[in-house]
Amino acid sequence: MSISKKENDLFERWKGKRNPFISDGVVNPEKFESKVVYILKEVNDKNNKEGDLRVYLRKGGRSQTWNNIALWTFGIINKEEGFNWTRLISKLKEKEFRKEMLQKICAFNIKKVPGTHTSKTNIINKFGEEDRGYLKDQFELYKDCNLFICCGNLVGSIVRKHVIKESFEKWDLTTRGIKYKEFEPQRFLISYSHPEARVDNSILYYGLIDGIKEIFGKDNNFLL
Hints:
This protein has nine helices and nine strands. By secondary structure, the protein is α/β, with parallel strands linked by helices. The strands form two sheets. Strands 2-5-3-6-9-8-7 form a seven-stranded mixed beta sheet. Strands 1-4 form a two-stranded parallel ribbon. A hairpin with a 2-residue loop joins strand 8 and strand 9 (187-192). The longest helix has 16 residues, at 201-216. The model has no long low-confidence stretch (mean pLDDT 93).
């Protein structure tokens, strides 16, 4: 059974609890080379309609949020390279760059019902706790993935408490303070900033890539 079919079967059950429902997951199974999973809070949709994040991202998404995730993915895939920031910014000017990078990822939200521009912590927490069974099922669909990036401390906390099989009390830290946990042998969670955090994009990029290099080791081939 394909990963998309497994996701859709899960969502059909989940939709009985949540409406309108935003499906998500592996953007393009044929190009899912990075094996990197990004976990976020919710989709922002003022129209409050059912949708599919996978379809949206196959078209390239929007620059907010997804420019940084495209750059992060490029950096992870090419983590042995030391790109300067000018080179990376030039990649974003390439017409198909963001679209190409987003087709290599998996992205799913804690809250499957669309929200507004500003996420409310108490509501996201409520969905994380109430839907923990479904979230665990979705997380388990990605058994062959070894890097899960929680976009924001709130997401990291929910995944730590409710989503992985065995919760843990404390994150480990890289030399420079990036939070991570090897929750299963050679499988890692990273609790990181949201890609729209009010920090220079260059700091977000190099902070993440530096942390991943340390976590996996320079000679590690877990990631393409």
